[in-house]
């Protein structure tokens, strides 16, 4: 946690969910409506196919709906792609950019991630910019250097706490049940805060830095309580309302 920063618990449904899953989303929305914790912000990034319905369901709750990726261009001959403007039109408030699964599957480089963050702002969305090292990079002792490079290349110089959120997702922790120790998370997040401050100046003190990778109710208090961890980006555990709400409840136990 960082004093003065309102934490964000964000779900990333990835390529999961059809209309039948919207009941879980309804329960997530109702959980926050029931006064879960007014100090905690919540967001669920659903597949684009569900965005219109999700944003309609969540519009009666404090929970926001987001997209999971966007194209850098506003429109054009890009079959199968979705622009930030389209996500905004469908009800998104945020979009994830640079997720390690997109970087790996589509060969996405830092410069493209940076352009996607700018595209998000053009459309009026907040960009959640993902960074994180692989297991090999960690074993070679390069984790912090990788984070420095990704921040240099993926975070636009015009990023502010209002339009950008950084998510630290060590690739080896995603979907594996493995998590870094609290000390490792603290080191990575302090490093990210320091590099953001070098790049953006004092505003970086107010920028949210989320942790992502195998967050679940049972480890949320430990991980979210770490200094400079301003919320979570949750994959698998965001698909079940009880788990997602259980993670958000961690803030009431601190
Ligand atoms: O990639 C993630 C969120 O973007 C994390 O996924 P898991 O929570 O399933 O490990």
Automatic annotation (TrEMBL):
<feature type="binding site">
    <location>
        <begin position="235"/>
        <end position="236"/>
    </location>
    <ligand>
        <name>substrate</name>
    </ligand>
</feature>
<comment type="pathway">
    <text>Carbohydrate degradation; glycolysis; D-glyceraldehyde 3-phosphate from glycerone phosphate: step 1/1.</text>
</comment>
<comment type="pathway">
    <text>Carbohydrate biosynthesis; gluconeogenesis.</text>
</comment>
<keyword id="KW-0324">Glycolysis</keyword>
<comment type="similarity">
    <text>Belongs to the triosephosphate isomerase family.</text>
</comment>
<protein>
    <recommendedName>
        <fullName>Triosephosphate isomerase</fullName>
        <ecNumber>5.3.1.1</ecNumber>
    </recommendedName>
</protein>
<dbReference type="InterPro" id="IPR035990">
    <property type="entry name" value="TIM_sf"/>
</dbReference>
<dbReference type="InterPro" id="IPR013785">
    <property type="entry name" value="Aldolase_TIM"/>
</dbReference>
<comment type="subunit">
    <text>Homodimer.</text>
</comment>
<keyword id="KW-0963">Cytoplasm</keyword>
<feature type="binding site">
    <location>
        <position position="214"/>
    </location>
    <ligand>
        <name>substrate</name>
    </ligand>
</feature>
<comment type="function">
    <text>Involved in the gluconeogenesis. Catalyzes stereospecifically the conversion of dihydroxyacetone phosphate (DHAP) to D-glyceraldehyde-3-phosphate (G3P).</text>
</comment>
<feature type="active site" description="Electrophile">
    <location>
        <position position="99"/>
    </location>
</feature>
<dbReference type="InterPro" id="IPR022896">
    <property type="entry name" value="TrioseP_Isoase_bac/euk"/>
</dbReference>
<feature type="binding site">
    <location>
        <position position="175"/>
    </location>
    <ligand>
        <name>substrate</name>
    </ligand>
</feature>
<dbReference type="InterPro" id="IPR020861">
    <property type="entry name" value="Triosephosphate_isomerase_AS"/>
</dbReference>
<keyword id="KW-0413">Isomerase</keyword>
<feature type="binding site">
    <location>
        <begin position="12"/>
        <end position="14"/>
    </location>
    <ligand>
        <name>substrate</name>
    </ligand>
</feature>
<dbReference type="GO" id="GO:0004807">
    <property type="term" value="F:triose-phosphate isomerase activity"/>
</dbReference>
<keyword id="KW-0312">Gluconeogenesis</keyword>
<dbReference type="Pfam" id="PF00121">
    <property type="entry name" value="TIM"/>
</dbReference>
<feature type="active site" description="Proton acceptor">
    <location>
        <position position="169"/>
    </location>
</feature>
<dbReference type="InterPro" id="IPR000652">
    <property type="entry name" value="Triosephosphate_isomerase"/>
</dbReference>
């Amino acid at each position: 946690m960082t004093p003065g920063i309102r934490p964000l618990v964000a779900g990333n449904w990835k390529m999961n969910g059809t209309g039948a899953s919207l009941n879980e989303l309804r329960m997530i929305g109702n959980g926050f409506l029931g006064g879960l914790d007014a100090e905690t912000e919540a967001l669920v990034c659903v597949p684009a196919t569900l965005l219109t319905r999700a944003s309609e369901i969540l519009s009666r709750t404090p929970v926001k709906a987001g997209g999971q990726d966007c194209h850098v261009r506003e429109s054009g001959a890009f079959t199968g792609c979705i622009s930030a403007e389209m996500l905004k039109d469908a009800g998104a408030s945020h979009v994830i950019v640079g997720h390690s699964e997109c970087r790996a599957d589509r060969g996405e480089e830092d410069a493209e991630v940076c352009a996607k963050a700018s595209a998000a702002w053009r459309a009026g969305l907040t960009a959640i910019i993902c960074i994180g090292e692989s297991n090999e990079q960690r074993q070679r002792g390069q984790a912090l250097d990788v984070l420095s490079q990704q921040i240099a290349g993926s975070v636009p110089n015009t990023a502010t706490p209002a339009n950008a959120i950084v998510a630290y997702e060590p690739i080896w922790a995603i979907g594996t049940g493995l998590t870094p120790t609290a000390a490792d998370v603290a080191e990575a997040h302090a490093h990210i805060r320091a590099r953001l401050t070098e790049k953006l100046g004092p505003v970086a003190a107010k920028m949210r830095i989320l942790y992502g990778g195998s967050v679940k109710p049972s480890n949320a208090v430990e991980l979210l309580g770490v200094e400079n961890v301003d919320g979570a980006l949750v994959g698998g555990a965001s698909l079940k309302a009880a788990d997602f709400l259980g993670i958000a409840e961690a803030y009431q136990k601190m």
